[in-house]
């Protein structure tokens, strides 16, 4: 019986991540029959069916999931070994799979990734924008960006930034004077109802804390839509500054109570394993540097 090869494992990983043999073949620069043969050989080597294929879908078996998780570790370890053997001559090349929240991903991470692949043309990035908490191992992710306090887990995390929040609205709401947090309760609110949303807003100034409860007339579960509603004049909202800083500077939105502080949100990079490839380390380091130049991010 032939043993499984790393080449077959790489093919299997790509089949699972792409969801079809034809898509995996295109990514790998080979043919669908070749991918199918490698998958069959891998199943023979392990003595188990790894995927169940139909004309429309591909699903891993329990054995396939076990192989998938171990294959990720084996392929990552081999990549790291190759890079260490090359030493300082290691290039930034290969694939990085990233998950990020939809708003932060669209406003911040996607532009950064575009610049990154321009600097490193041998690198390939796959960015998944989702407001659900991704399972790094089952989804084959190299890194996920998480905003807010982290739940206890076996994952490895690195804090890279802090996000500032602001209270803003369309300029027409300036007609009603707002001198203190309680004055905001009289205005209509548009709230973010995603995983970071809340109805209590706590302000702080020189050690003095004030908490108000708002009753939103509109709730939106994505920051991109939240920003659009605020620009349309739907009401007042609490939103991360990175998403609206340019709107504030250009006068499309106005900021209330800038001398009052609001809770800050930590940003972490989360990894499925402590050891990281050279390309991923470079990506993380450059992202952290880029974040420091974005308004509302520190």
UniProtKB/TrEMBL annotation:
Residues 1-61 form the HTH lysR-type domain. GO terms for biological process: DNA-templated transcription. PROSITE patterns: HTH_LYSR (PS50931). Keywords: DNA-binding, Transcription, Transcription regulation. The keyword Transcription regulation applies. Pfam families: HTH_1, LysR_substrate. GO terms for molecular function: DNA-binding transcription factor activity; sequence-specific DNA binding. Belongs to the LysR transcriptional regulatory family. This is LysR family transcriptional regulator. It comes from Paraburkholderia eburnea. The lineage of its organism: Bacteria, Pseudomonadati, Pseudomonadota, Betaproteobacteria, Burkholderiales.
């Amino acid at each position: 019986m032939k043993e499984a090869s790393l080449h077959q494992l790489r093919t299997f990983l790509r089949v699972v991540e792409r969801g079809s043999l034809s898509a995996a073949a295109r990514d790998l620069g080979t043919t669908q029959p070749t991918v199918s043969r490698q998958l069959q050989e891998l199943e023979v080597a392990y003595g188990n069916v790894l995927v169940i294929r139909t004309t429309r879908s591909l699903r891993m078996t329990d054995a396939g999931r076990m192989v998938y998780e171990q294959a990720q570790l084996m392929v990552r370890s081999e990549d790291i070994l190759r890079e260490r053997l090359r030493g300082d001559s290691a290039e930034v090349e290969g694939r990085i799979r990233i998950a990020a929240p939809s708003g932060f991903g669209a406003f911040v991470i996607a532009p950064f990734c575009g610049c990154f692949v321009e600097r490193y043309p041998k690198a390939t990035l796959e960015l998944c924008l989702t407001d659900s908490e991704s399972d790094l191992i089952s989804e084959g992710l190299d890194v996920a960006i998480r905003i807010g306090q982290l739940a206890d887990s076996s994952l490895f995390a690195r804090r890279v930034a802090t996000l500032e929040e602001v209270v803003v609205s369309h300029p027409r709401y300036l007609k009603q004077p707002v001198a203190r947090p309680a004055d905001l309760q009289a205005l209509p609110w548009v709230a973010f109802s995603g995983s970071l949303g809340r109805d209590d807003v706590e302000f702080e100034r020189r050690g003095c804390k004030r908490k108000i409860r708002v009753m939103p007339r509109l709730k939106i579960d994505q920051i991109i839509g939240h920003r659009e509603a605020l620009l349309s004049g739907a009401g007042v909202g609490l939103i991360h500054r990175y998403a609206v800083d340019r709107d504030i500077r250009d006068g499309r939105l106005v900021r209330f109570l800038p001398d009052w502080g609001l809770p800050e949100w930590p940003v972490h990079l989360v990894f499925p394993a402590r050891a990281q490839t050279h390309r991923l380390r470079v990506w993380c380091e450059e992202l952290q540097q880029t974040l420091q130049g974005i308004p509302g991010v520190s």
